[in-house]
Every structure is written in C-alpha cells, then in structure tokens.
Amino acid sequence: MMYVSDLFPRWNESMALVVERVPGSTAYVLMDAAQLPPDVMPWMECIRHGQVWNVSEDEPEADHPEVCALLAPHEAAWIATLLENYLPRRPFAFVAIASVRPVNELVAGLSWCKHAALPDGKNGLLRFYDAAVLQMLPEALDGKNLAKVLACADAWMHVQRDGSIGVLQGGGRPGMVALSPRELNALDELGTVDRVLATLGKHGRLPVEADPFDAYGKLSLMATTLFPDGKADMGVLYRCGAVCLGVPMDDFCQQWTQNGPFARLRGRDERLFEVVSRWAEGYAQADEAWPEEKALV
C-alpha cells in the first residue's frame, strides 16, 4: 500500500501556523496509545520522568499506559521520531493541541472532558483523543456540547479522512457534556466504519500495514452503497470487507455505486456475499459477470 508520503512535513508546517495564531501557547501531542504498537515506547518510564502525562490516570487502565490517552510536548525530539514513523500508518492515533494553560491544568481539563453523561444516566467515554472521533464531533454534537469539549485547548489539529490537515478552534470554559439520544445515535452511526475496520484488523482480515485512508474510503463507499439510509449492518460490511478491500481503489469505485451491481443486491445478503467474493477473486474479469447478475436482481 502507498501512504501519504508528505503527511509528516505538512503536519509540522500546519502545527507551526496553529501555534503562531495562538500567542503564548505551547504545542502538545495527544495520543491514543492503544492505536500504536504496545512496545513503541517505554510509556511508564516516560511518565515517571515527566516526559509524558497520562490523561487517563483516573481510569482503571491507568497502570497500562499503552492503552491510555497520553500527552507529550510537541517539540520533544522523540515525538518527532514517533510522528515521522507512525503518522502515515496510524494517523488517527495523534491529535495536536495548542494551549496557553499550564500543563497540569490542561491535563486535568482533558481528563475531565473525556467523560460524558449518557441518556440512560450512566457515564461514558468521549474518545476525542482518537482523531477519528474528534473529527466526528462537529457533525454529531450540538453547538454547546462541542464548545465544552473543544474548550479544553485553544486549538486542535488532526489528520482528516482524505489525508489533509484539519484544525478546530477551542478556547473558553471546558465542561463535561451530557449527550442527548440524538447525539449518541449520531456518534454510533458515524463510527460504524471504524468499528468494522477495527474488527477486521483484530481478526487478521485487514493487514496491519494497510493504508488507513484507502481502507476507510472503500468501506465508507461500501456502506453508502448498501445502506443509503445510514443504518449500516456491521455484519454485512465485515463479511464483504473481509474479501474485497484488497481490490484497487479505481476498480472498487467503478462497482460500488448506487446504480451498480452490488447496490441491486441490497437485502439479499448471501447472494451479495457470493457475488462480492467472486468479483474480488477475479475483479479484472468482473464486468463479464454483470449481465448475468442484472437478470438475477
């Protein structure tokens, strides 16, 4: 797979502009360590030496920082190496922030705001330190709740789904959000593709080194084709994705369309899996099969 080769230099250039626009701010990297190899850094030692702050220190997993939300100074030399090595492959493991607050106050605010009150009265975790989740928030949350989360820092920077750099403005007074049923449902629907990709990876059906932009783009197109109402069935996406995400993007886009052969098999799951599997095995000759399939739909 080919990654976005210039992502690291563009990240640094964008971060310099973000800090310049927030006078007196310090740049940090907020990491979702669970997305990185568990042995990528001696996290516990880094925390003991004050090189890293554990934003999840109030959580049961605090003794296992390799699965926590971690904060580190952006200018640290080892952070530059980490970003250069992993940003192209794990782009959503990193969120850069600029803040004028003292670091202890910043960590406390981030720790507090990651908790959310759910409609059923329970508490949940708002994983804004996962860049995939962070970029969902403007669409999923109402204005007041979004402002409460983003107020933890003065500016947020992340990699977007197409490999470009996105910036969200913060500032103000942070607070714990209370999610409405609509917001919770929106977050759930927007996160469907990510959950399917995570499950594919966990079960070895998606290569560890798969291009994250390519994989997300294909599965999103598949979800839109099969479930235009947005109510995607994770099981269907998993079974189809497991056999065809290796098809080149151009060939993939030609067939996964609203008027294409797979769209006409909506609701006929077993037939869909059969056709998708056959296409993935010999997609170069797939066009020859479509007249037959049209007669079956």
Automatic annotation (TrEMBL):
Residues 28-144 form the DUF4123 domain. InterPro entries: DUF4123. This is DUF4123 domain-containing protein.
